[in-house]
Amino acid sequence: MLLKEGRHITHMDLDTFFVSVEHLRNPKLIGKPVLIGGMSDRGVVASCSYEARKFGIHSGMPMRAALRLCSHAVIVKSDYEAYSKYSRLVTDIIGDKVPMFEKASIDEFYLDLTGMDKFFGCMKFSEELKKSVAKESGLTISYGLASNKLISKVATNEVKPNGQIEIPFGYEKSYLAPLSIMKMPGIGKETGYKLLKMGVETVKRLSEIPMPMLFNLLGKNGIELHKKANGLDESPVIPFREQKSISTEQTFETDTIDIQFINRELVRMTESIAFELRSQNRLTGCIAVKLRYSDFQTEQKQQSIDYTASDTVLIQKVKELFAKLYTKRQLIRLVGVRFSDLIQGTHQISIFDDTQEAIKLHQAIDSVKKQFGENLLMSAAGYKGPTKSKTACK
């Protein structure tokens, strides 16, 4: 497969996003080792400043372990509402200036600038956008410009913080060659360990391994890694405006005003699509609840929320919306729940107040659902009991 000239993709990533927001809120934190996360030592580090990273601290690390490495670190209780607010602000800034972009997570974006090289210049445009983000939001952002998403992301990571770089077409493979394999997207700890045991330490060495051998070692992932090691990536930039919603509806066999029954259904439905959300590695920033009365009159309420995929948060918000929506006390024939404003991301960025035990529990539950079906496990609040179901899916 040959590299195809023509695409110009810029990857932009906000520098230590959560910490940077806290710097704006409290400038006294600048220059100090800062840990964002739960306040208890049983919590987990959601993000940390560059000063903290010098001590070997990283996101996902138990707070207790982080404090052993840096006892004088400042722990800041997270404010996900503020982080979501700034994420939307930067999204709006980019959306006003870029015709097509993908919001890959709460703090990173892919911009398809193909064609702009003939007019304004892709590097110049990216630089001006970087300045606009800093001026309008107060946040620093780094970027890499290349012919595909893979190279642009790797390049961005190499120049952070507050950096910028362009990898010209034709230099993709040579740029990756000297880098550690652990800097390659798609190589986690387990895969990295296997490769390192074989003496494969650099991307160059990885690119020299025949594809059949990598396939035998890593399966389909081996084929993808062979392509990536050679600088190949044809994955498209998915326009942010085309992100779809996830929803479900339930029509009751008998119209009802049984609030306890309806709340059980809402819990069950919310858990179902929240699991789907996490399975797609997505977060939602907007919830809508719909109800249809027995006379077929339909009403709906929606609310913007902090980006999340947590059952606990989503169920609470759905119940609150339903309580505000259901004011007529008439018989109900249908209820629905919809998640929209979807971005890529995992529960990892909303674990601020979770303990390690709670995180492992949620991960274990999702693992069981993926193996044996999502209906095998559910919360007691959504359980209807062994009797015949009162509802029928629409």
What can you tell me about this protein's structure?
The strands form 3 sheets. A 5-stranded mixed β-sheet has the order 5-6-1-7-8. The chain has a 5-stranded antiparallel β-sheet with strand order 11-10-12-9-13. It has helices spanning 17-25, 50-53, 63-69, 80-97, 122-137, 149-159, 172-176, 189-197, 203-208, 211-218, 220-229, 259-279, 311-325, 356-372, and strands spanning 9-14, 34-37, 45-48, 74-77, 101-105, 108-112, 141-146, 164-166, 246-256, 282-293, 298-308, 332-344, 391-393. The longest helix has 21 residues, at 259-279. The chain is an alpha+beta fold. 40% of the residues lie in helices and 22% in strands. Residues 348-352 and 386-394 have low confidence and may be disordered. Among the domains are: 17-82, 3-Layer(aba) Sandwich (MutS, DNA mismatch repair protein, domain I), CATH 3.40.1170; 177-230, 5' to 3' exonuclease, C-terminal subdomain (DNA polymerase, domain 1); 243-393, DNA polymerase, Y-family, little finger domain (Dna Ligase, domain 1, 2-Layer Sandwich), CATH 3.30.1490. The protein starts with 8 loop residues before the first strand and ends with a strand.
